[in-house]
Amino acid sequence: MPPFPRPRAFFAVLAATGLVLQTGGAPARAEGGADPVRTTQVAMRLFSQGCIRNLRQEAGLKEVLQAAGLRAAPAEQATLHLGGRPGTLFVSNDPAAAVAVIVRPAAAQCEVRAPTTDISIAEGEFRGMIEGLAGPRVMIRRDSEERSSAGGRPGITMVFSAGVPPLEEGGARFAMQARQPVPGGIALSMTASGQPLDAR
Predict the structure, then answer these.
(1) Strand ordering across the sheet containing 100-104
(2) How far apart are CA 1 and CA 193, in angstroms?
(3) Long-range contacts (CB closer than 8 Å, 24 or more residues apart) made by 167-173
(4) Alpha carbons 139 and 195: distance in angstroms, whole number
(5) Which of 80, 98, 124, 152 lies in disulfide reach of 9, CB 3.0 to 4.6 Å?
(6) Does residue 89 contact residue 112 with C-beta atoms inside 8 Å?
(7) What is the pLDDT of residues 49-98, one digit of tens each?
């Protein structure tokens, strides 16, 4: 997964969709009281129930997102997140847990983003979530794990593959990047792509 993008327009999108960030103060809490711990937990739940369980199942994924209170963003707002590629942006109305989900059916991809996160919780929950998918017919392989402090922002990147053994081709790919939040940036990004784990 490439390094986190920090599009200048990201702040405008967050503002337009209710995910406004503070310009200073304690670790990048959003206006209205967005909490890094709660936001991380909400993002993890959406990734597990939506992106993993409904990979390549658009109807099921949208049902999960709607049940969680997310709504599709207008096209002019979504464009800034989608980067010119087809897809739909879903955003949360909960100011205490500002999350966004990008669904790209044509690319069989689902991504959860958040402007704030707790790195230690993100690391532990993501690792446990993915490793917990292992079973008699599903193999989990950690492809990479890297810690960094680019621009003075500590962070971690993890990439896993999952699928039917021996996992030489096909299967699913799960990636996460978590970084110390900064105003107007993306602190947490998790992406699921590939084939669903329906062999479980």
Answers:
(1) 70-72, 88-92, 100-104, 109-114, 188-194, 172-179, 155-163, 139-148
(2) 11
(3) 167/139, 167/141, 170/194, 170/195, 171/195, 171/197, 172/52, 172/55, 172/196, 172/197, 173/143
(4) 13
(5) 80
(6) no
(7) 999 999 988 899 999 999 999 999 998 888 888 888 889 999 998 888 88
* Range list of H helices, the chain: 10-16, 36-46, 58-67, 75-82, 119-131
Q: What angle do helix axes 119-131 and 36-46 make, rounded to 10 degrees?
A: 20
Counting other chains too, the contacts that 140-146 makes at CB distance below 8 Å and 24 or more residues apart are 141/167, 143/173
Query: What is the dihedral sign for C-alpha 83, 84, 88, 93?
Result: positive
Distance CA 27, CA 116 (A): 8
- Residues, the chain, total? 200
The percentage of residues in the chain with a pLDDT greater than 90, rounded to a whole number, is 56
For the stretch 5-53, pLDDT in tens is 333 333 333 333 334 322 222 333 444 457 999 999 999 999 999 999 9
Beta-strand runs (E) in the chain:
70-72, 88-92, 100-104, 109-114, 139-148, 155-163, 172-179, 188-194
